[in-house]
Please model this.
Amino acid sequence: MSKIYNFQTPLSDEDVSQLKAGDIVNLTGFLYTARDAAHKKIVDLIEAGKELPFDLKGAVIYFVGPTPPKPNEPIGSAGPTTSYRMDSYSPTLIEHGLKGMIGKGKRNQEVKDSCKSKKAIYFGATGGAGALLGKRIKSSEIIAYPELGPEAIRKIEVEKFPVTVINDTFGADLYQIGREEYEVK
Model:
């Protein structure tokens, strides 16, 4: 039976260890936006031993490239992007303290194994609901790589941002669980 949680970011090992695939989580606090180009730049900085644009410890990255904001709005539509493009970078970020990722679609086995061994969570956000998700974002500030346009790294403040646990710290995968429940035996 799925549960509903309300968590404040940054996330801790204790926070993510409570969660099971299928649970609903309302996140409040700060998230960082990044897609594949920004992920590559972050991993390059890690490999070079250089300072990162934000602290990965307990952080949650939202895989999104938001649209420009309307007047007096902090951000435009902010729906999740397909997560597999970040699969080659995510284990390194998890190794350095990342606790959560938000996107849509499946992750590879290496990412799922990293979530299990390092206590991290992959959350799904509802694709096609970017305008509604954007309403949960209270502020947005570009903090790195403005040359990437919508893919720049932003620090966004969210309030009760709704996500679903897809891959938990126990190795469970909601996509696999759902498939198994409905397959003809």
